[in-house]
Write a structure and sequence with these properties.
alpha+beta, Jelly Rolls, 19 helices, disordered N terminus
C-alpha cells in the first residue's frame, strides 16, 4: 500500500534510475496556495501600514456566497481528522463554530465574515488546516526589519530570553525604517513588546498563532512579530510595535517604535476580487455551480503552512556555522572541528524541493553521497532540522533506513481518517485510494476513525539499509513540523537521540487535502467551487480568491511509542539545547557553535554512542550489471567489523569474510561464486557482526543479464517480431524487487500488458528488456495503448549499449494510442527496455504493447 503521494509523497526513491526517480517527486510544494497564487511578474508594492491600511479590503460576497463558503468549510471539517483531539485538548468544536458562522453570515460584513473564518481556523491550532482570505487582503504581507530567536535561559516558559537574530534581507523594507541597524544590534535582548513581558504578550496572541502546543505557539508568535501573511492572518491591530531592548554589552534598556511595512504583490492586487460593480471580473458573482476543470491534484502528504516563517524577508541561514551547498537546494553540510571535534552536520531545510521536477531525488542522492563519501570519516553526524517546515512523507520515510540497524529496516508509521460518508466518497471515488477505500469500507459502523493502515509499506522504504554506522542524532526545534515531525519520530522510535532548541517539535501529524485542487475534483457532488475560483483557458487560477485545506489523515507512531499521535504532542527532545547570544553576534566569524560543541562532547562521552565509534562500511551504491551464472565480486571497505556476510534473496549466506586488521580500514571483496542463476533484478543483503552483535545491515541490487551468446542477432535487412517463438533466452521482465509480479508487465505471445490490464497499481516499476545484437541504423517499432495519470505515471522506451550508456527513445503519460518507430543510436550488443512506472496513486488501465518489431 502506498499513500497517494505526488505532493508530498513518493514511491520508493532508493536506487532507481534517474528517469524513474523524476516521476516520484513532489509536484505540489506550493499547493498550500493552489488556486490562489501564481508566479509574480509585476513585483511588489511597499508602504507603511499606517498609509496603506485603508486599501486592505475584501471580496464583496453576497449572502449566497457567504453561505456557500461557510457550508463548504463545514463539509470539509467533516473529514478533519483532528476534530476530536482539538475538542479534547483545546475545547474547540470545529463543526459547532462553523455552524455559528453559518447562522450569523447574512448579517456579517465582508470583513467580519472573513475574520470570523480566520479566527475559527486559527483556534484549531493546526498548521495543516488553513483558510485563505478572499480579496486584496490576501495580497499583503506585513513585515518589520528585525528577526528574533529564543536563547538559553533558566526558565524558557516563564522567563525566556529573546535575542535579535538578524535584519531583513529586503532592502525595501529596511529603507522604510531608516536607522534601525544603528539603533538595534544583533544580539540585543528583547525584553518587552508594547510594554508586556513575553509571557504577558503571548497570552494576548496565543489564540492567533496556530501553534499546536505552547512551544510551537511560542515560535510562531515570535515569528509573527517580524512578519505575517494577509493570506491567512488578520492585519496587525496597530501600525507599529514598541520594542524594549537591553543592549547585548550592558544592562541598559531602551525603547524603539518599529512600524509595520506592507509588501503587496502587484499581480495579486490586479487580479484579486473586490466584488460588486467595482470588480472588473464580476462575471463570477453568483456562479457557484461552475465545474472545477483543472487537473485533479494529489494531496500534500505532510507539510506545514509556511505562511509565517518569513522566508522571503529574512535569511534562512542558521547562526554561527556556514553550511556548504550541494546539488540540492534543501541539503547542505559542514564538518565541525572546533575543540577537536570531527562532527558531520547534514542540514535539511525542508523535505520537499520546489525547484527542479526531480528535486527530492536530487536531495536523496546528495544525502547518500554525503554519508558514503564526504562525511564518511567523521566521528559522528547530527542532522540539523531546525526551521524545517516539512514536505514529502515519502522522502521523510525513505531516509531513516540509512542509519537504522534492524532486520527489516525501520518500521513506518500508520495512518487513519475520520469515519464519515464524505471520506467514503473520496476514497471510493476519483481519488483512486484503493487501500484507504478498503480500510474505510471495513471499518465498523459507529467508529470515530477508519481502520489504520501504513502510509508507506516498510518494504518500499527499506531498499538500501545502513549507509553510516557511527553515532547519529537530530537537532530540532518547534518549527520542525509535519514531515519533519514524522522523520524525527521515526528516528526517535528507533533509538536515536533528539536534541531540541524547544522541548518538542512543532507537533504536526497529518497529511493534507485542499478544497479546490482535491475535494472539488474528487467529490464534486459534495464539494462545490467557491466564488471567483473559475480557471482560465490555460488552467490558471485567479489570484486573491478564497480557498482552504484540511488535515485529512492522521499519523500514528510505532515502536516504543506505538499508538501515540504526533499532533499536539510533537516529538519530545531527549536534551534541550538552545543557542547562546554569542551564537548570533555578527562579528564572531570563528564558526563556533555552542550547540555543536555540546553535541560533539555528548557523542564522545556517552557510553552507548561510543559503542558505534569507528564503525565503517562502504560499498558502491551504483546499480551493477552482472552476467547470469558468472562469478562476481562486491568490493568494500570496513573498519571495526569482525565478520561480514552476504545473503541472497532467500536469506541464504553465499559468502563470508573476516576483515583484518579489524581496527584499521580494511579493503576486501565479497565473492558470489557462479553468480545468479536467473535473469532479473536480484537483491543481496550484507550483514556485519562483532561477536553476536549485528552492527551492519545494508542491501545492494544487481541487474542480471544474459550471456552475449544468448542475444538475438539481427542481420542487416532482417526484422524480428517478438512473440513468434520462445524468447526467454534474450527477453525478460525486470521488476523492482518490492513489486508484485502480477502488478507488473505480463508478456505472453508478443503482447505486453501491465498488471491485469484493467487498472494498474501504485509504485510499479517494470521493464521488458530485449537483448539484441544489432547492425547500424536499426530501428524499434511497436503499437501501444497508454492510459495513465498524466505527468505522474509514465510509459517510456530506452536503449543501452555495451558500455552502459542509455538513451531515452520515447516517453509519454496520460492517454495515448499509437504505432511508432524509433531509430536506435547504438549497434552491436544492445538492450532495449520498454518500461512503465507509477507513483503512489493511479488513474487508468496502464499500458498494452504489441507488434514489437526490431530490424534494420
Amino acid at each position: 500500500m502506498m499513500l497517494h503521494q505526488k505532493a508530498l509523497g513518493q514511491g520508493p526513491l532508493c536506487d532507481l534510475p534517474p528517469r524513474t526517480k523524476m516521476l516520484l517527486t513532489s509536484a505540489f510544494f506550493a499547493l498550500a496556495i493552489a488556486g490562489t497564487a501564481s508566479a509574480q511578474t509585476l513585483g511588489n508594492r511597499y508602504g507603511l501600514l499606517s498609509a496603506t491600511r485603508p486599501e486592505i479590503g475584501f471580496a464583496n460576497y453576497n449572502t449566497e456566497q457567504k453561505l456557500l463558503v461557510a457550508n463548504q468549510v463545514k463539509e470539509m471539517f467533516k473529514v478533519f481528522v483532528h476534530q476530536y483531539e482539538k475538542e479534547d485538548v483545546y475545547g474547540v468544536n470545529a463543526l459547532e463554530k462553523v455552524d455559528k458562522i453559518i447562522k450569523d453570515a447574512p448579517g456579517l460584513s465582508n470583513r467580519d465574515f472573513q475574520y470570523r473564518m480566520v479566527a475559527l481556523f486559527q483556534s484549531l491550532r493546526d498548521l495543516h488546516t488553513n483558510y485563505y482570505v478572499a480579496g486584496p487582503h490576501n495580497c499583503y504581507n506585513f513585515v518589520q526589519p528585525l528577526q528574533f530567536a529564543f536563547v538559553e535561559s533558566e526558565d524558557y516558559l516563564k522567563k525566556p530570553k529573546i535575542a535579535v537574530k538578524s535584519y531583513t534581507v529586503d532592502k525595501n523594507v529596511l529603507a522604510r525604517v531608516p536607522g534601525i541597524q544603528d539603533k538595534v544590534k544583533i544580539g540585543d535582548l528583547l525584553t518587552k513588546i508594547d510594554g508586556k513581558t513575553w509571557p504577558e504578550y503571548f497570552d494576548t496572541v496565543k489564540a492567533d498563532t496556530g501553534g499546536a502546543n505552547q512551544y510551537g505557539g511560542y515560535q510562531r508568535a515570535l515569528q509573527q512579530i517580524s512578519s505575517k501573511r494577509g493570506r491567512s492572518y488578520k492585519v496587525p491591530a496597530k501600525n507599529a510595535q514598541v520594542f524594549t531592548f537591553q543592549s547585548s554589552n550592558s544592562t541598559s534598556t531602551f525603547d524603539i517604535t518599529v512600524p509595520w511595512v506592507t509588501v503587496a504583490s502587484k499581480d495579486c492586487l490586479a487580479d484579486a476580487p473586490t466584488g460588486g460593480a467595482a470588480d472588473p471580473k464580476n462575471n463570477a458573482l453568483g456562479k457557484t455551480e461552475q465545474k472545477y476543470h483543472g487537473k485533479p491534484k494529489k494531496p500534500r502528504t505532510d507539510d506545514a503552512s509556511v505562511d509565517d516563517w518569513g522566508t522571503e524577508f529574512f535569511s534562512s541561514d542558521l547562526p554561527a556555522v556556514a553550511y556548504a551547498p550541494t546539488a540540492s537546494s534543501i541539503v547542505s553540510y559542514t564538518i565541525y572541528r572546533n575543540n577537536g571535534a570531527n562532527l558531520g552536520v547534514i542540514r535539511l531545510s525542508a523535505f520537499t524541493d520546489s525547484a527542479p521536477s526531480d528535486g527530492e531525488t536530487t536531495a536523496l542522492n546528495e544525502v547518500k553521497r554525503l554519508l558514503t563519501d564526504v562525511l564518511a570519516d567523521t566521528d559522528s553526524i547530527v542532522i540539523d532540522l531546525r526551521t524545517n517546515g516539512g514536505g514529502s512523507l515519502g522522502f521523510a520515510d525513505v531516509m531513516p533506513q540509512f542509519w537504522v540497524n534492524a532486520p527489516n529496516g525501520f518500521d513506518t508509521g500508520y495512518g487513519r481518517a475520520i469515519n464519515h460518508p464524505n471520506n467514503g466518497a473520496l476514497f471510493n471515488g476519483p481519488a483512486n485510494e484503493e487501500d484507504w477505500a478498503a480500510a474505510y469500507n471495513a471499518t465498523p459502523k459507529g467508529n470515530k476513525y477508519t481502520n489504520t493502515i501504513k502510509f508507506n509499506e516498510a518494504s518500499t522504504m527499506n531498499t538500501i539499509g545502513q549507509l553510516y554506522l557511527r553515532p547519529v542524532a537530530l537537532l530540532t526545534d518547534a518549527k520542525c513540523y509535519s514531515a519533519c515531525d514524522t522523520f524525527s519520530a521515526s528516528m526517535q522510535d528507533h533509538g536515536f537521540t533528539v536534541f531540541g532548541e524547544d522541548a518538542t517539535t512543532g507537533a504536526g501529524g497529518a497529511n493534507v487535502i485542499e478544497h479546490q485542487a482535491n475535494l472539488q475534483a474528487w467529490a464534486p457532488s459534495i464539494y462545490k467551487p467557491l466564488p471567483y475560483q473559475e480557471l482560465d483557458s490555460n488552467g490558471k487560477a485567479r489570484l486573491g480568491v478564497s480557498n482552504f485545506r484540511v488535515a485529512w489523515r492522521q499519523t500514528i507512531r510505532t515502536g516504543p511509542n506505538k499508538g501515540k499521535l504526533i499532533e499536539d504532542a510533537g516529538i519530545k527532545s531527549t536534551y534541550q539545547l538552545r543557542p547562546t547570544v554569542q551564537d548570533f553576534v555578527a562579528d564572531d566569524a570563528k564558526g563556533v557553535s555552542s550547540q555543536f560543541d555540546r553535541i560533539a562532547k555528548y557523542f564522545k562521552t556517552n557510553s552507548n554512542e561510543q559503542k558505534k565509534a569507528g564503525l565503517l562500511f562502504q560499498a558502491s551504491l551504483n546499480a551493477t550489471t552482472v552476467t547470469v551464472g558468472k562469478t562476481f565480486t562486491i568490493p568494500f571497505t570496513s573498519q571495526k567489523i569482525n565478520t561480514i556476510e552476504l545473503r541472497d534473496a532467500n536469506n541464504k549466506v553465499v559468502t563470508k569474510t573476516n576483515p583484518t586488521p579489524v581496527d584499521q580500514k580494511h579493503k576486501g571483496t565479497l565473492e558470489v561464486v557462479n553468480g545468479v542463476a536467473t535473469l532479473g533484478r536480484s537483491l543481496f543483503t550484507i550483514q556485519g557482526f562483532n561477536g553476536n552483535q549485528r552492527v551492519l545491515i545494508t542491501r545492494r541490487e544487481f541487474t542480471v543479464i544474459p550471456n552475449t551468446s544468448a542475444y538475438l542477432k539481427v542481420a542487416a535487412g532482417q526484422k524480428y517480431t517478438l512473440g513468434s517463438k520462445d524468447e526467454s533466452a534474450y527477453t525478460h521482465v525486470y521488476n523492482n524487487p518490492t513489486n508484485n509480479a502480477a502488478d507488473a508487465w505480463q508478456y505472453k505471445n508478443g503482447k505486453l500488458v501491465l498488471g491485469n490490464g484493467i487498472k494498474y497499481k501504485s509504485n510499479v516499476e517494470s521493464a521488458l528488456k530485449i537483448f539484441v545484437n544489432l547492425p547500424a541504423s536499426s530501428k524499434l517499432s511497436a503499437t501501444f495503448d497508454v492510459d495513465s495519470e498524466k505527468d505522474y505515471d509514465y510509459f517510456f522506451v530506452t536503449a543501452t549499449d555495451a558500455s552502459g550508456n542509455t538513451v531515452e527513445l520515447y516517453r509519454t503519460s496520460g492517454t495515448v494510442a499509437a504505432t511508432a518507430t524509433w531509430p536506435i543510436p547504438f549497434s552491436g550488443n544492445v538492450y532495449l527496455s520498454i518500461e512503465f512506472t507509477s507513483d503512489g496513486g493511479v488513474v487508468g488501465r496502464g499500458a498494452t504493447v504489441k507488434d514489437i518489431i526490431i530490424g534494420s
